[in-house]
Amino acid sequence: MMQIMKYFKKSILNFFKILLLLTFVSCEQEVDQVVEVISPYKTENDKLKQVLKPLGLSSVKDFYNVNDNNLIWINDSLHLNEKAENLIETLNNAENYGLVSSSYLGNYDLNDLSLISKDTLLSSVFIDFIFDLNCGVFTDESLTSPFPAADRNKDELVAGLAEMVDTSSIDEIIVNYSPKHSQYISLIAVLKKYNLRTKLVEDQVDVPSNKKDSLNYLSYAAKALVIHGFLDSENVSDSIIISRVKDFQFEHGLNSDGVVGSKTAKLLSKSPFSYFLSAALALDKWRGKDIWSENRIDINIPGYKLRYFKNNELVRMHKVIVGNVKAQTIEILDSVEYIVVYPYWYVPRSIINHEMLPKARKDSTYFKRKGFEILKGRSVVNSDNIDYNSSFRYTVRQKGGSSNALGLVKFIFPNPSSIYLHDTPSKKLFNKEVRAFSHGCIRLQDPLDLAYVVLEDDQSNFNKEKVKSVIKNKQRTRVNLNNKLAIYVHYTLASVIDSSIVFHEDIYGKEKESLKVLKKIFQKGILLH
Length: 529
Hints:
The protein has helices spanning 2-25, 40-43, 46-52, 58-66, 82-92, 115-135, 154-164, 170-177, 182-198, 217-227, 238-251, 262-268, 272-287, 349-362, 366-369, 447-457, 464-472, 512-525, and strands at residues 296-300, 305-310, 313-323, 332-341, 345-346, 372-376, 379-381, 395-398, 409-412, 421-422, 436-438, 442-444, 477-490, 494-497, 500-503. Helix 1 runs antiparallel to helix 3 (46-52). The strands form three sheets. An eight-stranded mixed beta barrel has the order 1-2-3-12-10-9-4-13. A four-stranded antiparallel β-sheet has the order 5-8-6-7. A two-stranded antiparallel ribbon has the order 14-15. The longest helix is centred in the N-terminal third of the chain and has 24 residues, at 2-25. It is of the alpha+beta class.
């Protein structure tokens, strides 16, 4: 939140910077002869220098010093050069990078500035823009995030930019200083298409579900689809509307069945601009994170997806079920150390007290019927001899097997919250659109397929056939990995699947306040089409 407010203040400062520049240069004589190419800080009037210094622009001076105090953005004909034109176009479309275009150049005409002021201003906003791309501007998760922050230094960045600006294109510089996270790179690539398609409008229409208004729901859906850029006109056949509904559903992580149910209707009723804010926030969070391991498990909580990467290449993707609102899955940075095949489930005390004991008090055979063992220390005790109405000081575990709550395999990454990744007997839940059902741990679809690949890539002696043999013989077995596998469990509201942008609901409400502030920033700084 503090970083968001800083960005808001920075936008205001840039507004006054440009205003003051215009004030001080408006009375200067027009340049009508070849200008001696020397430092702006030597030739510009004293008032202009007084404006620049308080705004923290000493880095601009360093930028020019490295370039022998030459003008950067002006050609021999005393006009903006091609690189300057490319920079201006990029800044005017900063929303394609999830940033606020008017916080750099605003709506002011550079033609009103002297050549030197124009060059100085372009250098200043160039540095600011690249620094924002490199470091992020909206979020500051350093106190709450488990992920190491990226180590960025503005002085080093300015020195690097000064070296590159003469020999590299604007696009090459952007690529060089952008985060290297694969999801960040992919998201940048698809955001431009999204912005172009939707125009970032704030328009919206209240779409009823098919059950709420069975006669008119498709016509309202068509209006919303026009706003979201999936239709050019609402006057099309029902079959085309349904087809476009499927496209919209994919873009929002829903089952692409073409049915305008309550969830689809709710998401259609929001504006494209609101979804853009989720993407902008996601990009900024990626900018703040240090580079991740090349071999890793990556789980996005609100996206309900696990991705397995080897050498930074996506190998597998699985659906997951995460914690419910009352038992939220937390963000985690850890390493998978071992896999347990045919595991026991040791029931957490909270589940025993709040869910199991009330049932056992009504039915003393409850634990036995459900395949649970009761232990005192390490010894199994006869559940028939226990008085469930008295103090219950036992451990409860469920025997291994396909009906076990952990299924046939679990992946252990030791952490204080005792969260792990595991199989589940409740396979049908993976067909749900919203998959926040667990007590905090992460349930995985097709977990044995992931286990086989992880063990093979780990060059483990415990191969696929041995895993199958252990399960067949009902043997609980721990398989230590030769190399720990990094696992990142994060909370990101926009991602990329099959080269398409996908938006995710803020299921825990974690980003509600950030999105509110972000909306105000863009509304004040962006011209909505």
